[in-house]
Amino acid sequence: MLKPMIAVLMAACCALAGAQEAARTIPAYNTYLVPPYSIDATRGLARALAARLNAELPPEYQLDFRQIPRTRLHAAELSKDERFDGVVLLIAPRFVGDPYMTRYLWSKPLFVDCNLLVSGRLQPIEYEGAASLTGRRFAGVRGYRYELIDQMAVTHRLQREDSQDELSGLQKVGLGRADFTVVPYTIYAYAAADKELGSQLHVASRAHQCFTRRILIGKANPPGLLKALNQAIDAMAAGEHWRALLGSYHLDLDVLAQWTAHPPADGQVVEVRGNAVR
C-alpha cells in the first residue's frame, strides 16, 4: 500500500515541477519614466498595460514589469541583439533602430501616437518643416532620436539641449528657456491637464511625426510568446476596458485619430501599417 502512495506522490511532485518549469517570467521594460506611463511606484499606463496583458496571457507566460531609462535599455539589454530575452512595452520600431522590424520581433499595434511640436504660447511656432525650426532652441530628451531635428542639430541649423525627460522639456518651453520641444500626444495630453502648464504651451496644428506603438519581443524568448501577446492584444481591443483605461489618463483615441488623419508637415508618417487607432 505504501509503495503505490509513494509513486502517486512522486508523480504529483514531478507534474508540479514540470508546470513550474514550463511557466516563464518575461522581463517587460518601460522606458517612459514620466506620466502617464509612469506616475509613481504603483500607478501608470505602462504598468497597467503589463497587468492587463498578464490577465489575458496564458499561465505559462507572465510579464515582470520593470522601469529603465532608454539609454540603459540600449546599453544593457538591446545590445544583446538576438540574446535579448525580454520585451519592451509601448515602443516604435524606428525608435530602437529597427525600422524594417527585422532585428526584433514585434507585436500587433497597440495604438497610433503622434509626436507633437510644442512651443510657448507667447512665441508660438506653426510647424511647416525644417524652415520653421531653423535657428531655434530645441528641448530634447537624453538618449532619444528625433527625425529631421537630429540632422539639423548636427549641421548647427538649430541648438539641441537635452533634459532627463519629456516633462522637463515641456516645462523649459513653458518658461521660455527653449523655443520648442517634441513630445508624444500621450505625454502632452496628461501634462496639459495641469492648467498652469497647459496655459503656457502652444501645439502646432500639424504633427511632427506619427508612429505605431507596439511591443518589442526579443528573439531569445520562447517561440510562442509573440502569438500569445498578439492574442492578448486582440482580446484587449475587443473590450471596453482598454479604451476606458486610456481615458483615465486623459488620452482620447478619437483625438489621436484626428491627428493621424492629417499628414505631418514634413510628410513623416513613421511605420503605421494597416492600423486603425485602437
Description:
With 278 residues, this protein is α/β, with parallel strands linked by helices. It is built from ten helices and eleven strands. It has helices at residues 2-22, 45-56, 70-77, 149-154, 166-174, 185-192, 195-198, 225-238, 241-248, 253-261, and strands at 24-30, 61-67, 87-91, 105-106, 111-120, 137-141, 159-163, 180-184, 201-203, 209-217, 269-270. Strands 1, 2, 3, 4, 5, 6, 7, 8, 9, 10 and 11 form an eleven-stranded mixed β-sheet that branches. α2 (45-56) packs across α8 (225-238).
Keywords:
278 residues, alpha/beta, eleven-stranded mixed beta sheet, globular
Spell out the blueprint of helices and strands.
Blueprint: H1 2-22, E1 24-30, H2 45-56, E2 61-67, H3 70-77, E3 87-91, E4 105-106, E5 111-120, E6 137-141, H4 149-154, E7 159-163, H5 166-174, E8 180-184, H6 185-192, H7 195-198, E9 201-203, E10 209-217, H8 225-238, H9 241-248, H10 253-261, E11 269-270
Parallel strand pairs: 1-2, 1-3, 6-7, 6-8, 10-11
Antiparallel strand pairs: 3-10, 4-10, 5-8, 5-9, 5-10
Helix pairs in contact: 2-8
